[in-house]
Structures are given as C-alpha cells and as structure tokens.
Design a protein that fits this description.
single chain; mainly alpha; three-stranded antiparallel β-sheet; two-stranded antiparallel ribbon; 27 helices; 15 strands; globular; peroxidase
Length: 791
Amino acid sequence: MFLITPVDNNRWVYAMHGLEKPMDHVSAGSVMAGSVATLAILWMSLQTMGLLGHSHSISTYKLPESLQNYLASYTVLSGLPSNYGSEAIVDTGRFQNRRFPKIDGTTLNNSIAFAQMLIDRMSTLENNIANAGVELKTRSPAEKQFWNSYPSADAVDRSIDAIVAMKASSYLVHQNCRRFGLDKNDCARYISTLGLRDTPLGKSCAAVHSIECDEKSKYRSIDGTCNNIENPSWGSAMTAYTRVLFSQYFDGIQEPRRVGHSKKPLPSPRLVSATLSIANNQSDASRTLAVMEWSQFIAHDMAHTPVRKMISTRKPISCCQSDGDSLSPRHVHPDCAPISVPDHDPVYGDHYVRCMNYVRSLPVLRSECTFGPVEQMNQASHFLDGSTIYGSTPKKSRELRTFEDGHLRIDMRNNHTYLPRGETELTSQCGENCYNSGDDRVNVHPQLAAIHTVWHREHNRVADKLARLNPEWSDEILFQETRRIVIAEIQHITYKEWLPILLGRRYTRAIGLIGNSYSHNYNSDDEPAVSNEAATAALRFLNSLMQEKLSMPDNFRQQNKTLQLAEHFFNPRIIETEEVFDGLLRGLATQTSQKMDINLISDMTSKLYASDVNNLGLDAVSLDIARGRDHGLPSYNYYRRYCGLPAARTFDDFLDYIPMEMMRKLRTIYSHPNDVDLIVGGMAERPADDGMIGPTFRCLIYEQFSRSRRTDRFFYDSATQPHPFTSEQLAQLRNVTLARIFCDNGNNITHMQFNVFLKPQAGNELRRCTDFEAIPSVDLFAWAERAKAYR
C-alpha cells in the first residue's frame, strides 16, 4: 500500500498507492512529504504492535485518494526547525518507536456509553435555558442567520450519532493518550484509526453506505447517491465534507481553535474584522456583479452547512442576550461559540453590543466510519447538480414538481411566472414573502432570488420544448431529460465562463479545465465530497464582491433605479415589483462588482440581516472567521505551503502577495504568522495573474473544481457516463451562455452582451437577444426522437 523512500537520511516520504500527482505549481514535497508520512508511520506502528484488531481497522470501506491525503496531512515545512510553527508541524520521524495506548472493543463501547449518558443529561440544561427565556428573538438578525443555515429534520436526526461519536472520541483522548506522551493532535490521528463497526454506532454508519444502485441508470439521483457505484454514499447529501489538510482543533477532537502559536488567545473574530475590513467603495475595473451572484449560486449548489439545534427540544440555540449582551455562563449552551465584540468597537461599541450570535455547525459521522475529530455536514449533495433548483432530497424534489409535463411548480404574478410560495416552516421568517426552491437560501436577498427564478423558468421552458418535440414522452422522462439538460448548462457556464474569469484564462488553460471534446478523466477512486476549505473559506471570497446599492438599468443600460441591499434581506418577492426583476438581471450584467479584497461593504460587516438600513445586523467576516475555527481549519500559513508558496517565518514574508498596509494590520492583531485565519489570509492576497483571487484561494478552488469534474460520473461532457450525450447534443450544450439564459428567461430583456461576467465594452458589446449568431442558443431539436426508444 505504501511506497517508502528515504529522504535526507532522516526523513521519510510515504506515497500512498494511487495518490494523485500534485498540481504542477505545487511541488510533490509540499503536498506529500510528511503529510502522508504521519499516517503511514502511525498506521504501520499500530499494526506492528498489534494494537488494532481487524474489527477496529480504518474501515471496511475503500478510502478515496482525497481522503488518503486528508488523513495523512501533517504538513512538513521544509527547512524549518522541528519546533517551528504550531503543534501540527512535526518531524515525521517522531512516530518511529512510539508507544500507543491499547484500546480494545470494551474501551470503545464504554466511551460510547459515557457519551450517551452526557447527551441524556443535556435535556436538563436545555430545559433550564428555555425556562430562563433564552431564545432567538423573532425576525432578529440572529434568527435570520439561523434560517440561512437551517438544518432539516433529517439532518438533525443523522447528526445525533455524530455527537455521540464526538463525545466518545474526546473521552478516549482524555482517558488514554496523555500518559503515553501523545499530544492532542497526535492522539486525534491515532483515534481516527479506530473503527465504529463493532460499536453501537456501527450499524447506523454502515447503513449510510448500504445503498443499492442501478449502474446503468441514465439519470443521476436527486440526493447524489449512486454516482459512484463502488461507494454509493460518496458525494450524497448529509455526508461529511472532506479536507485538504487534517483538522486542527483546540483539543484535537472538537473544540474550536482559540489559542495560537505562542499559546496566546487568538483575537476575537470581530476585532479582526473591524481592524482589517474597511468599506472603501473600490469597484473592479471590468468584472460584473454576475461573477458574485454566480459564485453564490454555485457555492449554494455544492455546499450547505447547517447549524446545531437543541438536542432535546430541537429548538434554535441563542448564544447572546437579545440586547447584545453576553449570557450568564449557566445559560450558555455547549454548542455556542459566541463572538465577543470589543468595548470600543467602531460600530457596535456605541450601541453596547458585546456579543454576536454564533452557533456551531452540525456534525456528521466521519465518512470512513471511525472515531476521531469531528466533521461537519454538507446538507446539499456535493456534486454540481442543480440542487439549488431541484433540491437534495427526494422529498424536496417531489414538493417542487407538478408531475405534469415535466414541470416545476410556479406562481403567476403580473402575468409572469415566479417561484412558488414557501412552506409553513419558512413563513415565520418572511411572512408570505418566502419562496420555495431547491435551496431555502433563495430568500436571503433579491439578486439570489432572481437567479433562482431564471433557472426555474429555464427548466419549464426546456420542458415545454421537449414536450412539443416528443409528444409521447411521459412526465417523468420530460422532467429527467430537462433536468439533465439544465444541469449540463450550469456545468458548462461554470467551467467555460465563470472559472476562467475567477482563476484567470491562462491558468485555466494550463490546467486543462476547458475542453472541446468528450472527457475521459472520470476517477472512481477519488471522493467527490466538497472540501471544508472550499466551502468554509475559499468560496466565501464572494462576499467581498457585493455592492450595497444595486443598479437596475433599462434595456439600453441607462440608470433608472437602485435597491439598497441592507433593506431587502429576506425580502425576495420585491423582484415581482414592476421592472425590478429585469432591472436586477441587467444590473448583474452591467454593474461592476466591488474589488476583490478584504474590504467589504457595511451591509455585510455590520448590517447583515438587519431589519432595515438604519438597524444593526451581523458581520459576515466575523461569522466566516468563527466558522473556520469551529471547523478546525488550520491557519493560512499551512495552506500557503500546500499551495506552493513559502511558509512565512515572519509577517514580512507575507509581502509576496499581501500588501504592506494589510501586512502591518495583521501584525497588530495576530501574535504570529501561524495564527492568521485562512479566510483572512486568502482574502488579503492580491489577485494572481489575470484572475480575480490570490494564489491560495485559486489553488483551493482549482483543487475543488478539478476534483468535482473528474469524480462526477454524470458530468455533462463525460464519455464514460452510462448514456453520454450524443456529439450533436454536446455541441449544442456548448452554445449556452449565462447571457442566453438571461435573454430567454427575463420578463422583457431585449439586449445583453455575450459574456455577462464582463461589463459591456468593445469586443463585448450589447447585442439583441434575437441575434442568435451573437448570443447562440441550445437547439433542442437534437433531442427529438421517437418515444418508443424509451419504452
């Protein structure tokens, strides 16, 4: 299983068989040296000493390549002394001849019994909190944040086993590792080799993997199951994110990072945000707000991180008093990680707000069915599969369909079709203004509601045309064929139009993400799960691009109206107002985005989810920093090294990609370069080459989208899917642009430029939507065929 090669006489590099070749711009050493070595040495040591019986091996399930890399991701910073950096940076030779505690099946079962006892006692604490009147205030920013991360009932049910495993893992660390001299991170890696199979959690974990599949099915499942035939749960909804680097928790298992390299407390997320993020109103020279909105639409398609609820009552958790003060310690729920607000905060200080609500993310059992550090749940399917339109569960999909003519449900307003009204559980947040879509976050702001509506209409438009071409097709065939086409359109726009703008065209060409023929790179050995780093940090760059005043020009791009973003959080049905829907779509294609940096508009840093523009809300940057620590993401410096940049020994070493002024600010609030949060360092970087983002986020986003493509058995241009598109159909799908989607699905959009991600200018001029040479369309006649072929 392992290839072992001596390096420098005293270090070892272990390369797991089949591990993917590192990216060209990342040296093999930076990805593999030491990272795979740790798990390899640890695993072989455990096997040699006989401490792991067969029943407690990593699992009976095949480990994906990305998971092999994750489980082994101690990162060695070459040339640094062995004690440099945080505790996760180690000399790989330290595990040789190391003694490990013997943990047998009885000990594992005892740990789970202890964890279950703790959970059973939770009801007393939660009842005390409820009796004290500690709850989220209705329609407050904190409650809106809860709805933005709303956990479904099924997700909460699935998380209970993960909570038991998490508490049991903490018990094992405390009871078995210290006397053997294992620090918390070493012990966490050891614990992650102990399987759940012969414990009370074994059956439920195995059940997730026990799925029957029809490998010849033409259509992908709604929830992502059976995409990988050998491992049918991979990439499915309500499973764990994967990781690029091994997690770093304060206790090795589940407590958020709160102490830095020098053993000093990490700065409050709000202090970091208030110090670094200053609204400067600098716009990008040429990229439009469509880049921001497509980034959000795609991020929501691939990732949805739900928050925890009270275990006994299933009610939302409040971590602060409704007036912004801190709670009494006896009323703080264990799942709280409130963000402290400094007394002299430039915005919140005068309003005596000292506490910002943050509830920890929902956990899920580790995909390899072991004890070990907690993993967070992705409530959406991990594939780029239109789940924002169709949902990620069969129940949600059925809820959205009419079951006639392949259509999705609609409401008619002012002679135009819009998304149907939200279900009962949503109406407490928006009143009657909530929409029902594949993703409930459709309701967060009007631009997001507009992009959802466009694709909802696109589905029904395509279904109508297919029905006319193939009148004998059933509702099910019409729905599935339409869904397949719409997903292909989303994938093509993402990889052909959006990624080149984001990463830079030269970079995209160099790594081969754009092709003009069938692809043959499907890899069933690698896991398609979205990385925690991409979902929690890298894709959050989109917040930097948002504008506070949303332009709504007419068809000739003359400015006529604007919307204030902060006035319309959770007011999505404003798009039904006269001219707002088309105005927002034209604005997305015309108004340039904010410049990509760590300076965000105040609507995002102090007015997020506020009731109106004059009220205080939450701070998106603080929430993102807190979430990164909650998820155990290592700091920015480790990802620099992973992505081929030199690890910073001093803050001055950040100057290769971080401006001088920003570097000086980082130095004032962080004690050491290894303390800088990933989201902070990534957003502080200058854009690399001709792309929009810096090298670290570019690296992590590339890692995600290249892996998403090669691990999706149903990717639209794949020749290895069960029923590939015909060459004629594939050629037609490659005509699609977001400009054509806007033209075809607006209320009355008459003009659009070919590339809506770039503002109208020379070479990208406005053209009539009826000019199909300038803005091509997908000719659905390529799908016309006799119905008997489907009988």
